[in-house]
Design a protein that fits this description.
Radius of gyration: 26 Å
Number of helices: 14
CATH architecture of the largest domain: 3-Layer(aba) Sandwich
Number of strands: 17
Strand order of the largest sheet: 1-2-3-4-5-7-6-9-8
Helix content: 25-40%
Length: 482
Amino acid sequence: MPLFTELTACPSDIELLRSFYATVYESEFPDANERESLENMIGYLQAKDIGWYGLNNYHIVLIEDNSVLAGVSISDYFAEPNAGVVEFLLIHPGHRGKGLARQLLDHTEALFHQDAHRAGWPQLDFIVAEMNDPFRTPVADDNIDPWKRAIIWGGWGYGVLDFPYTQPALDEDKTAVKNLLLMCKDLRLRSSAKVPAATVKAAVHDYLRWAMRFEHPETSADYQCMAAFLDARRDVRLLPLRNYVGHSESAPLDIQPVASANQFAIVREIYERAFPPGQSTVVEASEFWKLLQLQAQAGAQARSRYHLWCLRAKPDSEASGMASFFSYPWGGFCGYVTMQDALQNPSRRTQLRIRVEEQMLRDSCGGSLWYAECLPEGRENLLFQRGGFYEIDVDYRQLPLQHSRRHGHVEAGGTRLRLYCRAFGRSYFPPVLPWRSFLDHMKDVFQSVYWQTDGKLCEAWRHLAAQAPADLDSPVPLVSQS
């Protein structure tokens, strides 16, 4: 059985904390901007010892596994919003896989319930915790795969508070952290998929006041931005974490990357049924197989990575969808997507968008946005407009395809399409995309998607470049969504 020890300000506990901090804590939080300092932790324990917290509380709990320090939970309780905050919860890599994290969290939550009763509440209402946003944190920079962590915490009953959370700088020599989510576990008897915005604001305010030592949180520019967002709303959505990373249990989506000729034959039939020959934007299905072979030959050295997916509702269901897209160091570009029959479901369309973003991020290790194109009258436009995409207000032309040339379906200057862009993850504000970056991205797209070489920039790209202003650092115009 694991042993839990709640630390106090006594000398022996402080030495235990110093040892754990040096041997485990620092290595598990490599980003110094996210890491609490040892001096602050000791100061908080000393403040608690003299009653500074009042009805609030502060906890540092160590967990031992076979008499070896294996992990830590650092948390706060705030009486006014009646909420617990898990600041840090970690298990040393050598002790993972034994259920210790769940046991440590359960112990921490039990302390919150005791705090709530001591403060005069009949029960605890909420628990919140920070987590690296999978869509903002490169996998290589995290100590645990962020998508797997999200699924684990989702299984523990936590969801994502849907607002733009920022952790202000913890010290003068640190910067604000903008790649975090604020998770929430709603413990009210009549819980719903929403949390009052005023409650979220109070929890964030007290977190800054008591845990981060902002004497007046209202003076923080980061808090002001969060407060303004919350003040404009009655409630904040609480999104299930599994759904947030594209794994809905109610409407599952099975994705199988095409890796064999048999799989390609299935996808080819789906594609040709959805995109029959005779349209200027339709390529021959054999082009997909050619791209897969070129990708296999190039390996990890390729600047772009190509993916062709076969989509099913469940692993044993009939295939009824496909997706074809590219990843780049800056993000990605989506070409052809169709979801038919059982996949005609808004939840599954959202899941596909999320899983495409995950793949692009795993490939790019730091990309920030992706593009999608469609015909001006295509039904996909509504899906893009409802999915956090913004239409780029330019005259965008698709390079004439070889198939189109053979069948005489070539418009002067290329086929006019709508071009959309979307930032990865949650999107609250339109992306700011400099012309310089946009043209560089489109150069990559035309070279890899449309088989252009570095020595021959196509007419479609030159047409875009001709629309750019003299100041290439100015933002690309977006179509208003009002």
